[in-house]
């Protein structure tokens, strides 16, 4: 799918708004070819799912269905981007989704650090801004 420069601009110009992050993620997913695996897109999918599942029904629902390969991709990504706080709290829940106390702790951390998570997401989109324009301009 192709997008105009002005269409992409509206989301990058309002990157601090949640709907813009979601729309950019949808666009990134639409630009990936079937066999293509782009680690930063996979990582953003996982990070945003982690946060949103925590908000909706509790983070245990994220960890309950987590695939090891995708967790590994996100862990490597968070290490590469030096997102230590997010990494430590993300890793707490892996393999521990039946531990209610730990899941409550992770949910609480996510709630109290949503701006740190948003900042990480925004930085990734901004680092890959050229990718969006190069892959999608009509």
Describe this structure in words.
The protein has helices at 5-12, 18-31, 39-57, 60-64, 68-80, 84-92, 100-112, 114-127, 129-136. By secondary structure, the protein is mainly alpha-helical. α2 crosses α3 (39-57). The longest helix is centred in the middle third of the chain and has 19 residues, at 39-57. The radius of gyration is 15 Å and the shape is elongated. It starts with a helix and ends with a helix.
Write down the secondary-structure element order.
HHHHHHHHH
Major sheet description: none
Count of separate DSSP helical elements: 9
The unreliable regions are: none
Give the N-to-C terminal Cα separation. 9 Å
Helix share of residues? over 70%
Number of strands: 0
The outline comes out as elongated
Q: How much of the polypeptide forms β-strand, as a percent range?
A: under 5%
Going by helix content, strand content and strand pairing, the class is mainly alpha
Radius of gyration: 15 Å
Average pLDDT score: 93
Summed up, what is this model?
The protein is mainly alpha-helical. It contains nine helices and no strands. It has helices at 5-12, 18-31, 39-57, 60-64, 68-80, 84-92, 100-112, 114-127, 129-136.
Sequence-ordered SSE layout with sheet pairings:
Layout: H1 5-12, H2 18-31, H3 39-57, H4 60-64, H5 68-80, H6 84-92, H7 100-112, H8 114-127, H9 129-136
